[in-house]
Amino acid sequence: MIGYAFKRIIRSKLLFVILFGGVFISSTTFATITLGTNALFLGMVDNAFAESPFDMEMTSFFYKQYPLELIELKAKISQNDVVQHTEIVTRVQRHEYWGPNIESSRWEVFTGIENDSLAYNGIKLLSGNSTLGPNQVWIVNSSTRRPNFNLCDIFNLTFRVIVPYSTEFHEPYDYPRNLTLQVAGFVTLTDQALKILVEDPEVWKNTPDHDLYITSWPLTFAPEIQITHHLLLGYPLPHAFEHSIMIMLDRSAIINPFDVQGSFVRLTSVDTEIREIAELSYSYLFNNLKENIDIITEESLNMVIMFLSSSIPIFFIALYLGVTMSDVTFNFRRREIGLLVTKGAKRKTVLRIFLTEALLIGLLAGVLSIVIAFLILPILLGPITIIKPASDFSIPLIIVILLFACLMALLSIYSSANHSTKIPTIEALREYSPTTHPSEYNRTVVWIALIAGIYKIIMWLTGINPLTIILGIGTPSLIMLILLSTWYIFDLMLTPIALLLFLYGLSKILIQGSQIIYQASEKLMQRIIGGIGVLATKSIKRSPARTAAIVFMLALVIGYGFQTLSVLASEQDYIYRSSYADVGSDIAASIVPAFKAPTLIPFVKNISGVQSVTAEFWTFVKIDPVWDIGLRAINASDWYQSAYYEENWFSGVPSTEAFNALSNNNHTIILQKGVAATRALRIGDSLDVWRGENSISLIVGGFFGPAEFPVIETISPRGDYSLVSVEVLEELEILSNSSCQLLIRAVTQSKVNDIIAEVQTHPYVAIVDSLQNRLIEYSINPILSAPGNILQIEVLFSFLLASFGTTIIITASLKEKDRELALMAARGSSKQQIRILLLGETILWISFALLIGGFTGLVASYAQLNNIAALDAFTPRSISILLSPILILQFTGLIILLVIFALIPVLQATRRAQRGAEALRQG
């Protein structure tokens, strides 16, 4: 049976290659999705864990352990089978502000590490001793006090311990302790080492005056901890030492992306065991691994849903192509089936032969799709997708992909094969006869499909979401809850297939159920190519069901292609604009202390490549005893020249009018729209704000940002703030306590890196961000770039479908006309006339498809972008992207590609007609 199946595949190369194509496209899509999702999951895991050098951290700010007890606690944790490494880190740190305007700040950190600490992997010795002895320290070279020290210098570390009431001290006593230390060397650190040595490395780096000293935990800190704990007399009171036990787990023994539930069970078991140890030692356990896994699992699940739901049209088209080609293939094999049955083969045996052929095609397509997926994933998704085929993660995936390919192949041929094996033997022994298509169709089904598609598109256009309505009702009755839940499930199921249903219904009704479109086409084709055009129109009119099937297929390719292209273009535009909004300009430089910003503006303006610069101050003020609002204080006369903003961010009045009001009156506020809505404020109303003892009344000159009331935790760069003049903060006497950044507009993007390098040389500049850095970070971050990468895969397969699908569907249609075309050629029709006839039919098919598919793709794209835009009111997706020159050019390229691949079967059919005519003449 297998040998016969192989033989038939080899003999019918062309037909099986075409059938193989549909299965290959679908299995390659599935392989890319499955392997890509797995790669992104693992990439997100690696990316998240790269941010933290340890999986767990047990910390204690209260006395409990002597040094020996800390060591025993570490050993107890290490007994767990999945714990790979533990180490003790003890810190003494002080963060102080002083001066009338908080101009000065210092953060000193003394850290004691063990001899096997992972921090040593990121410590580079510049000079001095390579090891630390008792009471010796390494000084980090970036410390502001580094110039004050030389090798072997002696200095004192002073810290304070709160000693409880005792007979020696009649009341709680703040007891000073001194450590005499010697400078053993100077070092530099990697970011990973800094994360071990300092509790909050980002804040530490952003503090202008910071110092970091590294010492030996067993030789220096352990003896001092012992002495200090004797002073505390066993009371759990605060002291200067902060103990941490860093824990690294065997991640491969815990994390399995194909066993999420098992991963959680294993992780929870380890977490529970170590957390019990932490509670007994009065410590707090932070499980970085669990928090990251929670986030990554959710992101991974969202990606799987996004991948599969967006790829349903690809699977459908591939299956449709397979079924269409199977109809033609088995029609050509009628005589073969009849001969097999005549020779004694049972019909079930013949069916098994055909199914075996399908399995062979599926296996071949599956293997090739896996190879292609491994080749294209690194290009589409970056280096994180370099997967080892023999890894534990990839082997189950490969099996699943092969099963999927075999399933698609079986589904493609089963209906046609089963129908063919049931044809009476006499009928089967006859020559090939074209497949018949009923002239009538189930109008109820068609209208249901069209109405369902229209409903979903209207839902997209209006931005109505059933889930939002359900959540907004509160506590509905049981019957109402059942009805709403049913509506939500129905709406959710329609989301991935709405385009299919709409196109199916529209193509059936317009092409198969209406004569108007044929009459218009006949008149148009007669003007273009004369009588042959009329003949082409009548030819496709004779088979309305076949025409409707072809038009539906081509329209789906066109509509789906335009939709994926438009969503990709919109996503790229959104990434650019939202990154610009987050940064605030081409370059944003944080200034510490804030009140020094005006002195930096002349310095920045003189840098080559700077077009303009402005200062922006961030802070909070109260509008009532409960609510705080975020403020950005700006100089309205020049802020708009340097800052990035969009006109739709402003409402009530145009942005120019709002800025004029702010420039003319320092007591004006461009109020966050959610705040205005909550307090029912209109243009011209007043709003009292205060901070401490100072208050001021501001006039509303415009509205800004989204309509939701902001949740004030930090100043958000996404519109959860109001705009005021700098003079408001000065009157409230809070300018010096504000955060500040300079917004810098560059002449060209090529100058950005040079400007950043020069800006960073100024001592008051803490952090510099830029649009370029954000876009680069976005492109290399698997979590952020995954949606765009998914869309790139969709676009790739859209173009594959446009080319291969067009060739297959037209080949299948013209193949059934070979006898008719041969008779035409034998009766005197020239090669040119037959080619024009076939070209006319093809042009009509493509024109109908372009009309239906283009309209549907445009409407669906607009609806989808409008629906997504409703989720982000501050930087929404741009609907105007649908008319952008780039998108129009890409869509034109898709149509040209479709036409080119439509000409291939036309030329082949013309040659077959000539060969058939020669055979008829000779016969």
Key terms for this structure?
alpha+beta, 10-stranded mixed sheet, globular, 923 residues, 31 helices, 20 strands
Description of the structure:
- This protein has 923 residues and is α+β, with helices and mostly antiparallel strands.
- 58% of the residues lie in helices and 18% in strands.
- The protein contains 31 helices and 20 strands.
- The strands form two sheets. Strands 1, 2, 3, 4, 5, 6, 7, 8, 9 and 10 form a ten-stranded mixed beta sheet that branches. Strands 11, 12, 13, 14, 15, 16, 17, 18, 19 and 20 form a ten-stranded mixed beta sheet that branches.
- α9 (288-332) packs parallel to α12 (394-421) and α19 crosses α30 (831-869).
- The longest helix is centred in the middle third of the chain and has 45 residues, at 288-332.
- It starts with a helix and ends with a helix.
- Residues 97-104, 384-393, 435-439 and 709-718 have low confidence and may be disordered.
